[in-house]
Amino acid sequence: MEPCELTMTDAARELRSRSLSPVELTASVLQRVAAVEGELNAFTTVFADRAREQARSAEDEMARGQFRGPLHGIPVAVKDLYNMAGVATTASSKVQANHLAKDDSTCVKLLADAGAVMIGKTQLHEFAYGVITSPR
Question: Residue 102: how many CA atoms within 13 Å on its side-chain side?
């Protein structure tokens, strides 16, 4: 089984026991995204370099015995409806294509504070309204 196939609970347990590192888990998730993204078009943006940096930081903290909680070192994707400072929040709409977020939304801030590794922003129906629109 590849690390990207673990449930969040199992991944968190392996990270905590240090039988898996956040760097290994993130690399596995990013490899899987790269393998299927061309067909799925699930992401508006993938932050591979940023995710690797966050994973290294989480690994360093864990090596010092600093565990933030069950999401520490866990790769997550954020719906492109939530603001991330310095990143476009398009809501999968052409009218939002150039909207650059100034601040993190509350949920993004909480995920970051918990030590989650942000791998990217996911597609959604335009403004998360209905099921009649298609991703760009």
Answer: 0
Q: How many other CB atoms are there within 10 angstroms of residue 57's CB atom?
A: 15
Strands (E), 4-97: 43-46, 75-79
User: Residue 46: helix, strand or coil by DSSP?
Assistant: strand
Give 12-69 pLDDT, tens digit per residue: 999 999 999 999 999 999 999 999 999 999 999 999 999 999 999 999 999 999 999 9
CA atoms within 13 Å, Cβ hemisphere of 84? 23
Give the count of domains, the chain.
1
Q: Which residues contact 17 (CB under 8 A, 6 or more apart)?
A: none
Q: Among residues 110, 113, 83, which one has the least CA distance to residue 96?
A: 83
- The reply to whether 90 falls in a domain is yes
Residue at 133 is within a domain: no
Give first-to-last CA distance, the chain, whole Å.
Answer: 33
